Amino acid sequence: MIDWARRFADKLVTNRHMLKCLVIRELKGRYADSLIGSFWALIHPVATVATYTFVFSYVLKSRPGQGAGTGSFLLWLLSGILPWFFFSETIQRSLHILIENKTLITKSVFPSEFLLLANLLANLARHAIMFIIVMSLIVVIDKRPPRMLLYLPVYVVLLSLFTIGLGWCLSAAYVYVRDVGQVLNVVIGLWFFYTPIVYEPSSIPVGLLPILRINPMYHVVEGYRVAMLGVQGPPEGFYNGLLYLGTLSVVFCLVGGIVFKYLKQDFAEML
Amino acid sequence: MSGAPETNVAANQKAISVAGLSKKYRIYANASDRIKELLSLNRRRYHRDFWALKDVTFDVNRAEAVGVLGSNGSGKSTLLQIICGILRLTSGVVIKHGRVSALLELGAAFNPEFTGRSNVYVNGALMGYSRDEMHTLMPAIVEFADIGAFIDQPMKIYSTGMYVRLAFACAVVTRPDILIVDEALSVGDIFFQQKCFKALRKIIDNGTTCLFVSHDMEAVRFLCDRAIILRNGEVDFIGPSVESINKYAGSVNTRKKYIGVAPAPPPRLDASNLGPLMTPQDILTNNVLDSISIMDNGCNVVRHGTGGMVLLGLRVINDSGVDTLAVELMHSLDFYVLVKANEEVIDPNVAITLFDRLGNFVFAGGARQVGHRLPDMSAGDCIVVRLRLTFTVKPGYYTFGIGASEPADTGAYNHDRFDGLGPIVVTFDETMELPFHGMTMLPLQVSNWI
């Protein structure tokens, strides 16, 4: 396993320039042919956040609870939906990236796992921009520095590992079975509400909580909120959750890598 | 080609060894059958097998060029893709020594969103060259590709020809240990083809091993030492390329095609007929010197000389008096050359050269070669020279050059010369019997008794 990781690292070093090109293309190319370019990258999340704020804050009058660390529903929603945007965008995009680069795979010996890595890195860059916006809003509105911000990098790394692992699995499967795309659309839609982003986990029956906590995104969202908002101390089960998330992310990343490595042997034939 | 790293393959080693190679494709009637089979955990078969390659065995020595011949669907492309490592083999062994560069159908390893330059870097990285190494090779690649400012444009706006140019430049300049070419040369104009064949020959002579798939028998004959014939996924024959080509061509033309046996007319060699008088003005108004061969970035024409005489204009007309570079086989073109002397010139010569598609030097000849003495000239004199060349050469594309020279101690003293003009197209009416086979017609007389 260590040997395998070292070989991957070697490949990463030799192909770093290519990876850079791929990332830049992902960042630029996405909106290259549209009129207002990368503004679309902002419009979609802004519209989503506006909708949820309107529905939950104004119509349903929900307020963040006592331990949330902020009184503003908007800030609370933003800090929770931030990792979700990153996760869902990356996963949904990763399905199509192999098909789009079909010629590279069928006509040359191309490390196709890099396409997904580039996708992840490009989305990570967008994620960083959104984080800066959200974080500035929190500091400006709440006038309170986040005390646990040091946890954030840990969550970013774990979320990235989890996302790339899942992305590898799904994109490779998609090459063989195109139904994966349809299934994913449904699953992502359900997964959003399975994760406590627009509601507080405390508002659901205690008996259902363990089911919610199986979801790795539960812990990611919780971690982001703890790190970004003015929470006094970690909530109950926070460290166990972190441990669970850490284990799951590493396992997903490894399994994803192995599955991809196995399935990619016949990519050229299938594409 | 300077700066390319030395090939890291020891001498007299096999560059590619293929043993018992087989490739099976699973053919599913529709996509859902694949899932059904997966879900039944391979207990039920929903596919039928198709063997694209069956027990293929051959070796390629270092610095050898081997052609792969075969009709469509005979497994050529599959074979190359497996050797490149793109496709997985079903059984057998493939051993390669050294860096492999592949030109599979139009150098599709490029990413259309990237600029040409960054694609070259990416391509190099894929082949295992560092950024620094590619940096030193870059000028040579840019020069070979010769696509001007397009090198810094995204490749999606490239024409097919430019695509191939860049792909080929990468492959040739980086001097891989093994070069795999799949029908890549059929694109690109004749000038670039000539350049490619020359470059290929050169890197093969310098130790690159080449595996070359083409339907172009002439190219295989020109480049390859040996050739493999594939038939339905099996090796039908391996041998010297000439033998393979004859065998393959023989097997392809098994059906006897009925051809009207009207023999082509003999060449018209009535040089006495001077035709209409061509004035310098006529030549200049129909001058093609500046317009032919400019079709591809205009960088192909090479002009050199000391300038004692200058070629002011060239008009080319066929035997019906039409301005054209297309000529029917066994017919002739008249090349009217307008030459001006800038100094005193004794016994000048005006000549034409002809090169075929592969860059073979087919013919050169002029006034002196046919024993026609042109008048001596003094500074400011102009002369119109007509060269009537009858095309008794195999149909196809040719480039030509014209030049004006004076006798020198050895050879000729070159005053002005244009090379890389054209292309001249020699056409042939397919319904007729070819008056000869091969590169050119030699005088042949046939008699019989009884």
Descriptive tags:
A: 271 residues, B: 450 residues, Coagulation Factor XIII, Chain A, domain 1, six-stranded mixed sheet, 9 helices, disordered N terminus
Provide an overview of this structure:
The complex is a heterodimer of chains A (271) and B (450). Chain A has 271 residues and is mostly helical. Chain A has one domain (6-270). Helices cover 75% and strands 0% of the residues of chain A. Chain A has 12 helices and no strands. Chain B is of the alpha/beta class and 450 residues long. Chain B folds into 2 domains: 14-252, P-loop containing nucleotide triphosphate hydrolases (Rossmann fold); 280-427, Coagulation Factor XIII, Chain A, domain 1 (Distorted Sandwich), CATH 2.70.50. In chain B, 22% of the residues lie in helices and 32% in strands. Chain B is built from 9 helices and 18 strands. In chain B, the strands form 4 sheets. Chain B has a 6-stranded mixed β-sheet, with helices on both faces. In chain B, strands 10, 12, 14, 15, 17 and 18 form a 6-stranded mixed β-sheet that branches. Chain B is elongated and about 90 Å long. Chain B starts with 13 loop residues before the first strand and ends in a 23-residue tail after the last strand. The model of chain B is unreliable at 1-9, 254-261 and 294-299 (pLDDT under 50). Chain A binds chain B through residues 14-15, 17-18, 21, 25, 29, 32, 101, 103-111, 176-179, 265-266, 268-269, and chain B through 25, 31, 34-35, 38, 81, 84-88, 100, 102, 104-105, 107-109, 111, 113-114, 118, 121-122, 125-126, 128, 130-131.
